[in-house]
Automatic annotation (TrEMBL):
Keywords: Membrane, Transmembrane, Transmembrane helix. InterPro entries: GPAT/DAPAT, Plipid/glycerol_acylTrfase. The chain crosses the membrane at residues 386-413, 440-461, 473-491. Coiled coil: none annotated. This is Phospholipid/glycerol acyltransferase domain-containing protein. The keyword Membrane applies. It comes from the Eukaryota. CDD domains: LPLAT_AAK14816-like.
Length: 697
């Protein structure tokens, strides 16, 4: 009975969180989900942990397994968060930093005496014990020996001198009970999710990993002989993680197999145990680096993204997972050659180009939409866009007004929580990692509350009318039920309107400053050419699979989901269907899809003057036109059917494209300028497909 209740509460929470994610994010694209073992114990190791409680929800939704995740024990006492954590069978863990207290007095430290700390009015003997730690200006060092109230020794050196610095006393916490709980869960063939960085943050790179995950994996295999625990690295990549209607890519790496010799070393204890944990932790860190983007600073990340935008093919959009993979490879190449004079010179050019974009007030992707040789047509285009924008604004207005109080309150509360988190953390930069979490939690409470309030107002108004008692109750109930649909429709219309609004700026720049627009286009073209040449020159030195002259299209692959509502009908499938009735049904299903209903005003990506392209996605990204057929269903059942969709396998990326491959003509060839081999077939749920070969440490 208890197991049934746990599964039932888990499913309820999962359904609710899935609804919240679909509302908050515009697109979540999984990559590599087919690599996850379908059964057996698995530890999902996820990083970077940049979106607090949203991260485990995204992973829970896309991993195709029931998971329990580790959560800070103090979070279990927060209203709302603790309730949902218990519904999801979360495992609480006491973190030392949550018990940290400000120490009395001040401390002094001299690099000339690197392992000795002297206190001023301190009480080391009563506030600290050996193996506790002191936190000082973002550094955490272990206490080796307490000599007196004003003197102690530490395990490792600090980075700089300190004079009268405040500090925190961080107690050592034994986690044996948590480890035992995790070991038992793994022995029951269940899945555990852990964020080995220890806490959420908003930095551009991963924090150092904690060794707890190695104690869990090796400890379980040592306690239960024959148990084969797999470790699956998960990379969480967000595009503006804290913003409403942003995008995300979650990438799963190859499952790691823990060799028996590490388990034997762990059993031996002492130095060998520490060596085994260190070896496994290094392997986990290396695996995480293959599925994450780690920049040394936010400015470096912005530079890499700018260079990637200038290099990508100009004729089509990249899928989100391709963008993430390209960012990662650009960053690897940049770290190899960042001191090279050519790279430094190109870096300065990219930064100057970004400043030029800021001066004109447009984005890089809008530069190609400035066409100086279509004066009257651009004026007509501007008027038409303003008209459509006005119409969409009117359609979005009702839902916007109804939900405006929720937006205001959620913004205020989330910013307050971000400030509080920033004050209590030594690793956060601006506290952005908690914004999305609190926006979701506030919306979860306030949206149904306000809808109930609006329905009550309708009820009071109905009471004044000469209606039967039945209608006096039915109308308010119908109002409460219809409000979510009104809000969703307004959201989608507003989303399209926002896309059109952003397209007005380059049109305006073209009309008022055609010379400046022409300068922008020429600068972009030259910069794109320089970046491509530099990559083609240095690419082979970093990537052994570099090939500048090849791009191919793969054969069709099965789609992730097979429900009727999300079938992706293609021109290749329809000829195989014998019945004309089903062809008609395919057309009907296509028109009933909300991408069609809400997409009638979308601007085509490749034609600046086309407004009525029904085949564009709501975001203008090719990846989104099929996002429904690749997204996870909100239920745990897997279908035995599969639909066939077309996918691309990028073997190289280029800024020039001579010929587009014709699906019906296999003899057509495509010539490109390529950087490196990058596989990006759509990752599908292939039922009982054997998991790809694991990585052995």
């Amino acid at each position: 009975m208890r197991t049934f209740i746990q599964r039932f509460t888990y499913d309820i929470a999962f359904w609710l969180f899935n609804l919240m994610l679909n509302t908050f994010f515009r697109e979540i694209k999984p990559r590599g989900a087919h690599k996850i073992p379908k059964e057996g114990p698995v530890i999902f190791v996820a990083a970077p942990h940049v979106n607090q409680f949203v991260d485990p929800i995204v992973l829970m939704r896309e991993c195709q397994r029931r998971v329990s995740f580790l959560i800070a024990e103090k979070s279990m006492h927060q209203k709302g968060i603790g309730t949902f954590a218990r519904m999801l069978n979360a495992i609480p863990i006491i973190r030392p930093q949550d018990l940290a207290k400000v120490g009395d007095g001040f401390i002094q430290y001299k690099t000339s005496d690197p392992l000795r700390v002297v206190g001023i009015s301190t009480k080391f003997t009563s506030q600290l014990k050996p193996r506790d730690s002191i936190a000082l200006r973002g550094q955490l060092v272990e206490v080796v020996q307490i000599i007196s109230d004003t003197e102690l020794t530490i395990k490792k050196e600090l980075t700089k001198d300190e004079e009268r610095a405040t500090y925190k006393c961080v107690p050592r916490i034994e986690q044996e009970a948590v480890y035992q709980h995790v070991h038992d869960e793994l022995n029951n063939r269940k899945c555990i999710t852990i964020f080995p960085e220890g806490g959420s943050h908003d930095r551009a790179e991963m924090l150092p990993l904690k060794a707890g995950v190695t104690m869990m994996a090796l400890g379980a295999m040592a306690k239960y002989p024959g148990l084969d625990v797999k470790i699956v690295p998960c990379g969480l990549n967000y595009f503006h993680a804290h913003k409403f209607r942003s995008r995300a890519v979650i990438e799963f790496g190859n499952p790691m197999t823990i060799p028996a010799e590490l388990v034997e070393k762990f059993k031996a204890g002492g130095t060998e145990k520490r060596e085994a944990c260190s070896t496994l932790l290094d392997s986990i860190y290396s695996a995480l680096k293959t599925v994450t983007v780690n920049a040394e600073s936010y400015e470096t990340l912005m530079l890499i993204q700018a260079a990637r935008r200038l290099y990508k093919p100009a004729h089509r959009k990249l899928h989100l997972s391709q963008v993430v993979d390209l960012n990662r490879r650009f960053l690897i190449g940049y770290n190899f050659f960042k001191d090279d004079p050519k790279v430094i010179e190109l870096q300065q050019k990219v930064l100057a180009y970004n400043q030029l974009l800021k001066y004109h007030g447009i984005k890089d992707h809008q530069v190609l939409k400035t066409q100086s040789n279509y004066g009257l047509r651009m004026l007509y285009l501007l008027i038409k866009r303003v008209f459509i924008l006005t119409l969409l604004a009117l359609l979005a207005f009702p839902g916007g007004i109804l939900n405006l109080p929720v937006v205001i309150v959620a913004t205020i509360i989330s910013e307050k929580k971000a400030n509080d988190a920033l004050k209590s953390s030594t690793v956060k930069i601006a506290g952005r990692d908690v914004l999305a979490t609190w926006k979701l939690l506030v919306g979860l409470v306030l949206i149904p509350t306000f809808y109930g309030f609006y329905s009550f107002i309708v009820f009071l108004a109905i009471l004044q009318m000469d209606l039967t008692l039945k209608w006096k109750f039915l109308v308010p109930v119908a109002t409460w039920c219809l409000l979510p649909f009104v809000s969703y429709a307004s959201l989608r219309f507003g989303e399209i309107g926002n896309d059109i609004f952003r397209s007005i700026k380059p049109t305006w720049v073209t009309l008022l400053d055609p010379t400046g627009a022409e300068t922008l286009r020429k600068n972009r073209e030259k910069l794109s050419r320089d970046i491509t040449e530099l990559i083609n020159e240095y690419g082979p030195k970093v990537f052994p699979d570099f090939d500048a002259n090849y791009i191919s299209r793969t054969t069709a692959v099965p789609s992730r989901t097979t429900s009727t509502s999300s079938l992706s009908w293609t021109t290749n499938k329809l000829p195989r269907i014998a019945s004309g009735f089903f062809q008609q049904q395919a057309i009907i299903m296509n028109w009933l899809d909300d991408k069609t209903i809400f997409n009638w005003g979308r601007i085509a990506e490749d034609d600046a003057f086309s407004f009525w392209d029904f085949n564009r996605s709501r975001s203008g990204s090719i990846s989104e036109t099929d996002s429904r057929s690749h997204s996870r269903r909100s239920s745990f059942s897997s279908s035995s059917n599969s639909s066939i969709i077309e996918g691309f396998k990028i073997e190289g990326l280029t800024s020039t494209l001579d010929n587009m491959l014709d699906e019906k003509n296999k003899d057509n060839r495509m010539t490109t300028r390529r950087i490196f081999r990058m596989d990006d077939e759509y990752e599908q749920d292939l039922g009982n497909l054997t998991v790809s070969e694991p990585v052995v440490i």
